[in-house]
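2'-5'-oligoadenylate synthetase 1 domain-containing protein
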Amino acid sequence: MITCNIGKYKTKSDYITIIDRHVPIFKQASSFNTMVDFVGRNPGESLESFIDRVVNPDSSYVSQTKSVIHTVAELMKSKSVDHKIGSTVKGGSLGKGTAVRGRSDADLLFVYTDIPSIEILKSKLPELLKELQSVLARSPHTIKSVKRTPFTIQFDIEVKGQLNEVDLLPIIQLDTGDRSRAKMNPIYQQMRAREDMREYYFKCLAPLQVDFVSREDEKIKRSIRLLKYWIKTRSHVLKSYAAELLVIKAYEEMGKPPTGKMKTLDLMKAVFTKLSDLKNLKVSWDKYYTPSSFYLPSPPYILDPAFPYHNLTRQKSGIDEKYVHLERDAKKFLANLK
C-alpha cells in the first residue's frame, strides 16, 4: 500500500516514512525464530517446488479477486459525476503481481483528466474522496472497514470469504507519457522546490512504482514472493515494496542472467547476502532521477526509484535494533540456505 506521512524537511535526515497497513499473514510460533529454513518447507524440497506448493497464490483466486477489483474501478469511473476519471492504474501486490498466498492488497489509482495541477488537486482532494466514498457505498460486493485518510479511501473487500485490503487514490498524471530521465527532470525539480507539496507528488508518482516492479519477469516475482513470505513468517520489519526492490537490485547485480537458466537459489543467496551486511546496503536507481542530485542517507538505504525522498529503511540513527535482528537472522539463514 502506498499511504505515507510526510513532515517538514528541516534537516537532511528528514525523510518520508511510509506506513503499511499490512498485518501478519501467517500465525506465528516461537519455534520459527530458531528455524534456518523456510517455514513449511519439506526436507529436501527444492525452492521451486516450495514456492509452487506454499508461497504462490492460487491462480483462480487471484483471477477472481482482480475481477472484483476491476468492477469496483469501473463503478468509480462510471458513477463519478463532478470530475472525469480518465484511467485507472492498479497497484499493490495484486497489480504488481507479487501477492503471496493468503494475503493480497490493491491500490486503485484514479487519474483525473480535468484537474490541471498539483495545487488544484490539493484543493479538490477532500471532495474527490467524498465522492469516491459515496460511490463505493453502491458496490454490490461485501465492503468492510471503510476509512477515509487525508489522501485515500481504505477498505477491505471480501472474495471467497477472504478479505483483501484496497486503497483508492485520486491522482493526476504528471508526466507526458515520455518517462525518460530528461523529460522527468522538470517534475523532480518542481518537487524539490515545493517542499510543502511533496506528499502530493509522491502519490501522483505511484504509477512509476507500479511499472518499475510489474515489468519484471515472473521468475523474479517468484523470488520476491519468497522473500515476502520469509519476512512475514519471521516477523521482520522490511516493507513489501522494499522486498520487491531488493530482489530486483540483487538480480541486476548478478548481471541479469537469462531467467530461464537462473536458479532461484542463486538469486535468494544474493538477496540474503545483502541483508546480511546492512551497513553497506545501498540500493538506488537513476531511471527517473539522479540520486546524487538529492541527499543520500547513510546506509542502509533502499531508495524509491520513483521518489528520491523515500528511503524504505529509514532509521533514526545508526542501525535500529529491529534491523540488527533482521541482519542476524539473514546471516544465519544464508549459511544454511540450500
